[in-house]
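Practice record 12: protein with guanine.
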Amino acid sequence: MSEIIDGKNLAKEIRESLKVEANKLKEKGIIPHLSVIMVGDDDASKVYVRNKSRACEEIGIEFKEYLLPNDTKQEELISLIEKLNKDKNVNGILLQSPIPKPLDIQEAFNTIDPKKDVDGFNPYNVGNLCIGQDGFIPCTPYGIMKMFEKYNIEIDGRKVAIIGRSNIVGKPMAQCMLAKNATVTICHSRTRELKKELKDADIIISAAGKRNMVTEDMVKDGVVIIDVGMNRNDEGKLCGDVDFEKLKEKASYITPVPGGVGPMTIAMLMSNVIKATKEQNNIK
Ligand code: GUN
């Protein structure tokens, strides 16, 4: 039997402490501000952005949403980001991914001022994470590291297998784990022997976006399972990448979906907005 990692509760604890910090800033006349840009009408993005807006409201962060149409031109997107970069009232800028195909999302991320890049996707922050310098850490990997910390799960010297090599989760996750002295393997769609890689792992972090990607026969006893997947099952219910019911009997720790990684991602975004606001105002 495993211990189920309660991301929902830990995220709530983090938001409570951020509320205290936001109140301290308010006493100094500073209201943290997050601007979110969404291009097009991706349904999942709408839900994510609504959840981000609710968290901002709860903590006392001002939230502004820019909804751009599907046929937005690259120059228009870039010029909005440049405008927000210059705006002294804006502390954090987030461009919700995905955006419509013809647009170049990386160029847009590259344009976000690294000091306001609360997602940590600007190459300056990506580089800082790689060399162990302070910067903004992408919210999902950051939230997962907080879970390991809270539950005192050892990372040093252990084998970590990550499924997925995205810039949003897989790659920054690998850097976070490496910084804590793990031996890291990144698996992806071209990995030849996924089962072998997973069987060997002490910790599995799945960000494949495919239900039943990780099954009982693929893991060893006592493994730690972190499920980043957000999928729907046949009944339309939210589910992760792993066979939770079977794996919770075999793992030492496991995250549920929902109530695991998802709420932590939003809590760490809030944490990054507070960090950005403090740094821009020279507050320690
Ligand atoms: N789309 C899915 N996850 C994320 C995220 O963490 N940040 C942004 N900007 N877009 C996303």
